[in-house]
Amino acid sequence: MAASLRVRIGRRVAWLREYEDITQAQLAKAVGADPMAISRLERGLTMPSVERFDKIAAALNKDLAEIFDFTDPDTEHQIFRRIVNTVCFLDREELETALRLLRSLYPASWERKESRKW
Length: 118
Fold this sequence. Notes:
There is one protein chain. By secondary structure, the protein is mostly helical. Helix content is about 70%, strand content about 0%. It has helices at about 5-20, 25-30, 35-40, 50-60, 65, 75-85, 90-105, 105-115. The chain is elongated. The N and C termini lie far apart (about 50 Å).
């Protein structure tokens, strides 16, 4: 298998793992592997069996095919979800600070969307 394909697959697994907020150690435990095996996979140094990929996909709440889907993972919906997941644990003061920051960074966009009804 070409090294570049191993690297792409490894990056995809790493992205999916991080998106699900799972550590390499947690993923390794879920699939019955050593954490270093997950690290080597994510760096494109090794390639697991199809059976192991199936376990990895299940641990990441994905279909096996999604492991090999190299389309841009950051659709608008996914970006929105990542933002929500990031701010959902902020306290009120931190949320207000984030809101002020967004308003200062994107004033024209903010004014245009201020009238939106959620």
